[in-house]
Amino acid sequence: MSRSTIDLWVGIFVLMGCAAILFLALKVGNLSASSFAENYTIEASFSNIGGLKVRAPVKVAGVVVGRVSDIRYDNERFEAVVSLTLDSRYSFPRDTIGEILTSGLLGEQYIGLEPGGDERALKAGDSLKITQSAVVLEKLIGQFLFNKAAEAPQQ
Amino acid sequence: MIRKLGAMVIDGVWRLGFATRFLFLLLRYSGQSFLRLHLTLREIYFSGVLSLLIILVSGLFVGLVLGLQGYETLQRYGSSEALGVLVALSLTRELGPVVAGLLFASRAGSAVTAEIGLMKTTEQLKAMDMMAVNPIARVAAPRFWGGVISMPILAALFSAMGILGGWLIGVAFIGVDDGAFWSQMQAAVDIRYDIINGVIKSFVFGVAVSLIAVFEGYDCVPTAEGVSRAITRTVVSSALAILALDFVLTSFMFRG
């Protein structure tokens, strides 16, 4: 079978397509950082998760070390149970504190971990002992108004 | 009136059944047509390579418009660095596959329908049958697979060109910070969630558009008017199929 110019053009076309997908994969989406090859899952209970979503980042000292893989409701303890999938390159002490934080004023919510001082490390399936719930804006404003009202008569 | 409505419904169901049977025949005989690979390559050339120009140019312009409009809105909230995220997500998730699919349907799908319709009108398909050449394996399957293979490539090129267009407007003309543009984009776009899902979408659209185009050509009334009606139906029903499938796929893929 002889080669024709159509084959050349189809080859160029397919190459361009591969280049476009590579461009999308490497330059637009971050291939290396977003997929953890080996990971382990821990749990944390919060009395209020605010607007936390599945796939929200888990950060330690500002570095993404994992993602929220599941959020469910525990009907016996009336708390939200959040599963965190962490990169197994990192391990944290067992008394690590988990808190729900917001990036920027209107940004997305994420989970920040505050490592403690315990010598034993968290294993898969463990749950965080100390957690701090999301700050709900309405409660904050309510508290602020309440304090203002308490201050006023003294002046 | 009611009789007409009933006839239309029955006709529609009939055609749907025939289209399904046609799809199975296509898949069954595509093994035969892959033995003669140059036929499929030829169709990739006609429906893919020749659609390159319109896809690249319109991708660039869609990106330019997204960049301008996105910047206009985002800078009101002081977050013009998020322009990269906006352009990349809207292109990879929705606009890339959908607009490329619509363009592909009107550029390549209509041509395929016209070609097969004309072959039927001039009784070339019947002649092939007489010569013991299966017209589905010889004519329909290569065109179908040509479209299915071309479509994801074209959609990826569309998205890539659009992102470059958004970069051109945002970074080169308006002056959004280059590093923030790419780094915020990379932080927000996920390979599996956004890009692979976009490719899956474009593949599904490719199957739908190619099937509709080949089927309409194969099923057309063999007259000049019949061919022209078949081409119109290809473009209209491809567009409807793409938009409806897009809704279904999006509700499966991007929930929560």
Automatic annotation (TrEMBL), chain A:
It comes from the Bacteria. The chain crosses the membrane at residues 6-26. Residues 39-116 form the Mce/MlaD domain. The keyword Ubl conjugation does not apply. GO terms for molecular function: phospholipid binding; phospholipid transporter activity. Keywords: Membrane, Transmembrane, Transmembrane helix. It holds the Pfam family MlaD. PROSITE patterns: PROKAR_LIPOPROTEIN (PS51257). PANTHER family: INTERMEMBRANE PHOSPHOLIPID TRANSPORT SYSTEM BINDING PROTEIN MLAD, INTERMEMBRANE PHOSPHOLIPID TRANSPORT SYSTEM BINDING PROTEIN MLAD-RELATED. This is Outer membrane lipid asymmetry maintenance protein MlaD. The gene is mlaD.
UniProtKB/TrEMBL annotation, chain B:
This is Intermembrane phospholipid transport system permease protein MlaE. The complex is composed of two ATP-binding proteins (MlaF), two transmembrane proteins (MlaE), two cytoplasmic solute-binding proteins (MlaB) and six periplasmic solute-binding proteins (MlaD). It comes from the Bacteria. One of its GO terms (cellular component) is ATP-binding cassette (ABC) transporter complex. It is a multi-pass membrane protein. Belongs to the MlaE permease family. GO terms for molecular function: phospholipid transporter activity. InterPro entries: ABC_MlaE_roteobac (IPR003453), MlaE_Permease (IPR053408), Permease_MalE (IPR030802). The chain crosses the membrane at residues 12-29, 49-71, 153-174, 195-215, 235-254. It is found in: Cell inner membrane. Keywords: Cell inner membrane, Cell membrane, Membrane, Transmembrane, Transmembrane helix, Transport. Pfam families: MlaE (PF02405). The keyword Transmembrane applies. Part of the ABC transporter complex MlaFEDB, which is involved in a phospholipid transport pathway that maintains lipid asymmetry in the outer membrane by retrograde trafficking of phospholipids from the outer membrane to the inner membrane. Probably responsible for the translocation of the substrate across the membrane.
